[in-house]
Amino acid sequence: MPLPTTMRAVSQDIAGGPDVLRLVETARPEPARGEVLVRVHAAGVNPADWKTRERGLLSTGVEPPFTLGWDVSGVVAGVGAGVTLFRPGDAVYGMPRFPHPAGAYAEYVTAPARHFAPRPAKLTHVEAGALPLAALTAWQALVDTAAVRPGQRVLVHAAAGGVGHLAVQIAKALGAYVIGTASSSKHGLLRSLGVDEPVDYRTGDVAETVRDVDVVLDPLGGGSPARSLRSVRRGGTLVSLLPPDATFPRAEAEAAGVRADFMLVEPDHLGLREITRLVEDGRLRVVVDTVLPLERAAEAHRLGELGRTTGKIVLAVTDRG
């Protein structure tokens, strides 16, 4: 059956609140040399999505209109010249083009072939669509940036969140002792994911109760990295997942003998294969909080912005092809 020439996508003409998101009919993209065309089955929703919706793609200079989304799980529908890694019909997942526009909130996306990897056979498209951005962020922070080793103490803030719940499992797989912060109602989940020491951030100053850790993973930003620095031993590492502001403790970290870095995730074919290996070995599972259809993307953003999500929100994309 020939592919449709048009597709549904969620677009925005201006930056703003969730209501700027609208379902449109637009031309289906064609894969360029070295690219694949993927029919999207599921698209994960991430904080980067609603921040971009509200502020625009300032870091890339791209102005609206554009289509949000970077998490993709789907099936290869076509390949550009020179692609040998995949064939039409292959199930794949990935985080294409980040931080440049990828357009995952759509029925089809194109991207370089190595921005994808084979989808873990144990996962549905919805589960796989929840993984790439959050799991790659955790992997690159803990493995590539902090070089976590067996026996080290790792503190993960927001450990029940999208990145956090995957980071605690990756840290455990690396042999670390894991401390995770979350409200007490989520401590059962944290223990089921392998957290050795759940901490309720609502009942006191985490930096006063958690000391001498080797690595802190901080997805919170703002004043949190400065507070987290007090938990890190000399020679340890503090990894922030949000761009540093005036409160970021660079000088204080240097004086304390701590490496403090901001890390931005990037497409990573080999990293995705390592994540797949952990999934297939039963050492990594993704928690999906809510699944909504593509046309309810605005509702997905409203839920995400409440900050109460456990795990991930996913858009289920049903096309007509």
Overview of this protein structure:
Helices cover 26% and strands 27% of the residues. The chain is built from 10 helices and 16 strands. It is globular, with a radius of gyration of 20 Å. The mean pLDDT is 95. It has helices at 47-55, 125-129, 132-145, 164-173, 187-193, 206-209, 224-228, 250-256, 269-280, 297-305; strands at residues 6-12, 22-27, 35-45, 66-67, 72-79, 91-94, 108-112, 116-118, 153-156, 177-181, 197-199, 213-218, 232-240, 259-262, 288-293, 312-316. α3 (132-145) crosses α4.
- How is the biggest beta sheet arranged? 7 strands, mixed
Low-pLDDT parts are none
Distance between the termini: 8 Å
Rg, alpha carbons: 20 Å
β-strand percent reads 25-35%
Look at the helices and sheets and give the structural class: alpha/beta
Q: Count all strands and give the number.
A: 16
Q: What's the rounded overall pLDDT mean?
A: 95
Residue share in helix: 25-40%
- SSE pattern: EEEHEEEEEHHEHEHEHEHEHEHEHE
Helices, by number, come to 10
Give the helices and strands, then pairings.
Layout: E1 6-12, E2 22-27, E3 35-45, H1 47-55, E4 66-67, E5 72-79, E6 91-94, E7 108-112, E8 116-118, H2 125-129, H3 132-145, E9 153-156, H4 164-173, E10 177-181, H5 187-193, E11 197-199, H6 206-209, E12 213-218, H7 224-228, E13 232-240, H8 250-256, E14 259-262, H9 269-280, E15 288-293, H10 297-305, E16 312-316
Parallel strand pairs: 9-10, 9-12, 10-11, 12-13, 13-14, 15-16
Antiparallel strand pairs: 1-2, 1-4, 3-5, 3-7, 3-16, 5-6, 6-8
